[in-house]
Amino acid sequence: MHVLVLNSGSSSIKYQLLDMDTRSRLATGLVDRIGESSGHLVHNGEAVGADGFADHEAGLRAVLDTFAARGPALDRVVAVGHRVVHGGSRFERAELVDDEVEAAIEELIPLAPLHNPANLEGIRVARRAFPTLPHVAVFDTAFHQTLPPAAYTYAVPAEWDVRKYGFHGTSAAYVSRKAAELLGRSYEEVNTIVLHLGNGASATAVRGGRSVDTSMGLTPLAGLVMGTRSGDLDPGVLPYVARLTGLTLDEIDSALNRESGLRGLAGANDLREVWRKVDDGDRDARLAMDVYTHRIRGYIGNYYAVLGHVDAIVFTAGVGENDPRTRELSLTGLDRLGITIDPARNTAHSARARTISKDGSEVTVLVIPTDEELEIAEQTVDTADVGRTPPH
Ligand code: ADP
User: Fold this and answer.
1) Which catalytic residues are annotated (predicted)?
2) Do 242 and 220 contact (CB within 8 A), yes or no?
């Protein structure tokens, strides 16, 4: 039983073909710079000759041609899973796509103007390419629909109709379930703080398999310091800067999303580069890492209080999985909370899920590689109901 997973961005389509009987990856690839003449396609690590793709339709057609020419064959695909960034309050779980679901994703475009249009375009193109297969939309926000009102309500005039939604839900669902497995306990009885630290970064408090608070908000700009996004700041900064500089709201929004975070503080958004600068004695870079890890510690304390009892802290995504210095700094001084990292375990190289806390640490600290595509494929199989053998 094979599942095709599509992640359609504004100018790219990332794809994976997964065998759900063995949970293995059969193919992975990317079409990028859609709409430009320089776009190209990489299939299983190999560049496939191409001279650009006019639109998503042309991009997906090139992907299907490549599967036909180079394999593997797509004849065992039973369903197509689509990543959709914003599901608003409408989508509490993954959903089988029909015209009504497409229309609902379209209605949510104001909440995710950069992402939902591209996600939707990918769905439309793929439904035309695979008209007989079930298509499932898997939402980044869905896992956080269990947040209680106290956690998702903003203290602003009610008629603004804004609230926290949260993102990275597919990743948080995957790694928090894995954490329970690694602890050898049932998902329902384990409390976890998930630290998803990639280019985008978020913290999520998971109580017994349900998200109860998360650091991103109405948009993915809130919370932790990120590669180029500011994370939390006093909302009063916006009118202050607007008045002082004459920048428009759109310009400030763009600066908060693209020129802030580590890039704003240290001039680089990749943690590896920031650390190189720190090692060269760059004080701005040093401050950037202090701010970055101070914010993470603050969220750990916050979610410790929200959960009351924490069984595991999980580090995941590019930084969380690969950067022992950031992990160590983020947990410094938290011994009194029962969080004690083991320096040798923390610095040992491994691509596998592993424990990095000391034996006897009350809170187990884990590094778990996230796998959003596998989680999308799992939810696709469950939602499309293709996993069951049909009765004779
Ligand atoms: P995205 O949010 O785009 O999915 P990833 O989860 O792939 O991003 O994370 C990308 C980030 O991970 C990079 O920008 C880089 O800062 C960080 N990263 C990757 N490898 C390492 C490493 N070995 N050490 C420190 N940071 C790393």
Assistant:
1) 140
2) no
